[in-house]
UniProtKB/TrEMBL annotation:
<feature type="domain" description="LarA-like N-terminal">
    <location>
        <begin position="32"/>
        <end position="189"/>
    </location>
</feature>
<dbReference type="InterPro" id="IPR018657">
    <property type="entry name" value="LarA-like_N"/>
</dbReference>
<protein>
    <recommendedName>
        <fullName>LarA-like N-terminal domain-containing protein</fullName>
    </recommendedName>
</protein>
<dbReference type="GO" id="GO:0050043">
    <property type="term" value="F:lactate racemase activity"/>
</dbReference>
<dbReference type="Pfam" id="PF09861">
    <property type="entry name" value="Lar_N"/>
</dbReference>
Length: 432
């Protein structure tokens, strides 16, 4: 037994109960029909001329119904006589390579076969101009050679800065379609300037590139599309702050605060740009994002396969498992973090050999004054928060809330001989 293991032998993990968090359920029942309805609104179809080549920017985020959104947009453009193709709009993600970005789209369910059009993946850019502060404004070369550009993205709070415009259409136009060089330019002065740089670069690009419109979505607390909206070029910068306000009110959250310990089963790029959303965990890599959650110690147990080894955001955790550590692709992770200029996200936390010891280390070091009243929550990831597990000490708060429901009795977590969750324990909590 190692010295570290000896530290943990006296640590008892609390019994945890499954709890449902209840959020407003206003999901769009037929996403494809909602996209078609947007194209059918007065004047929208007239934005597309027969024979136009149109580049569709698709990003690296795990948007709800992303393949449906892409496929239906392609079908509508084809119906109007256009010749659409997809360009990855994900800045430096996918290891900052054309092949990596196309592979990342495929992991999100977007391929040439699923979309019904070609994918043209390249890291080549063209310079459109510069901001007054000297930062160059760059755009995907293939997109700029098209007659029109369309972007598809979810509007939501950003993970590293707060402002009138955060994650959404404008950021995809600015950073996503800027590829690695454009993303690096926008990040060059740090996240303290991001709100301004994203806005001003987007304003310039909207005026000096053939962006026609964006397909914006807002998701509800159940990771379902609650709004689909076609936003024309000239309305993007005015409409997006309104959609952001709606998205902020609709996003899921952990309905307990503060927490002594937070356990995140899996981090990943499909859940958040930083693997674990700071708006949920309260752990941000910059001081420029407003968060409300408070967490004593946070442990993350695994990295999704869809992340392709990109563990950006791992540094926000205090503890990780050996399993997660061994999945990290340092090149992909560093490419993302160096481009954003925020290296904290690539730091390696304390590494524990298995799930049980990672959880025990979090409890051991959380400084809770009374272990019998430990405020501990376990979540599958930071996007799917309908069902979570909470320590027994939190059950009185569940009983007192109309937005919380106990789903079963509190019990001890099940671990196998290696100290990792049993298959049944993992499968019961594997949403997302």
């Amino acid at each position: 037994m190692s010295v570290i293991e000896q530290f943990l032998t006296t640590v008892d993990l609390p019994r945890m109960a499954p709890v449902r968090q209840i959020f407003p359920d206003d999901a769009v029942r037929d996403v494809a029909a909602a996209v078609r309805a947007e194209f059918a609104k007065p004047g929208n179809a007239a934005l597309v001329r027969k024979g136009m080549t149109i580049a569709i920017g698709v990003g690296s985020r795990g948007l709800a119904d992303l393949p449906v959104l892409v496929r239906t947009t392609v079908e509508e453009l084809l119906r109007l006589g256009a010749r659409p193709f997809i360009v990855p709009a994900m800045g430096s993600h996918g290891g900052a390579t054309a092949e990596g970005q196309q592979a990342l789209l495929a992991k999100l369910g977007v391929t040439e076969a699923s979309a019904g059009c070609p994918i043209r993946s390249s890291m080549d850019t063209v310079k459109l101009g510069s901001l007054p502060n000297g930062l160059p404004i760059l755009m995907d070369k293939a997109a700029m050679q098209a007659d029109g550009i369309v972007v598809i993205n979810r509007v939501k709070p950003h993970t590293s800065f707060s402002g009138m415009i955060e994650s959404g259409l404008a950021k995809m136009i600015t950073i996503g379609l800027g590829k690695q060089q454009g993303a690096e330019s926008c990040h060059a002065h740090g996240f303290g300037m991001m709100a301004e740089n994203v806005l001003e670069m987007a304003r310039f690009k909207l005026a000096h590139s053939p962006v026609l419109f964006g397909i914006a979505t807002v998701e509800n607390g159940y990771d379902r599309v609650a709004r689909v909206e076609l936003v024309r070029n000239e309305r993007i910068l005015d409409r997006e702050p309104e959609l952001l306000k709606e998205a902020r009110a609709s996003m899921p959250r952990i309905l307990f605060r503060p927490l002594d310990v937070l356990i995140v089963d899996r981090m990943g790029k499909e859940f958040s740009g930083t693997g674990m959303d700071p708006n949920i965990t309260g752990r941000a890599s910059t001081p420029y994002v407003n968060t409300t959650q408070e967490v004593g110690k946070m442990a993350v147990l695994d990295l999704t396969d869809s992340s392709s080894g990109n563990a950006t955001g791992i540094g926000l955790a205090d503890i990780c498992t050996r399993r997660l550590h061994d999945k990290i692709d340092l090149i992909a992770t560093y490419a993302n973090c160096v481009t954003s200029t925020v290296l904290a996200g690539a730091r390696i936390p304390v590494i524990m050999e298995n799930d049980r010891d990672a959880m025990r280390m979090a409890v051991k070091t959380c400084n809770a004054p009374d272990p019998s009243k430990l405020r501990m929550v376990r979540v599958p990831n930071t996007l799917h928060l309908e069902e979570i597990h909470v320590s027994e000490a939190l059950l009185p708060e569940v009983e007192a809330s109309d937005a919380l429901e106990v789903l079963g009795p509190a019990r001890a977590a099940e671990f196998d001989a290696t100290g990792n969750f049993t298959v049944s324990e993992r499968e019961a909590f594997a949403h997302g």
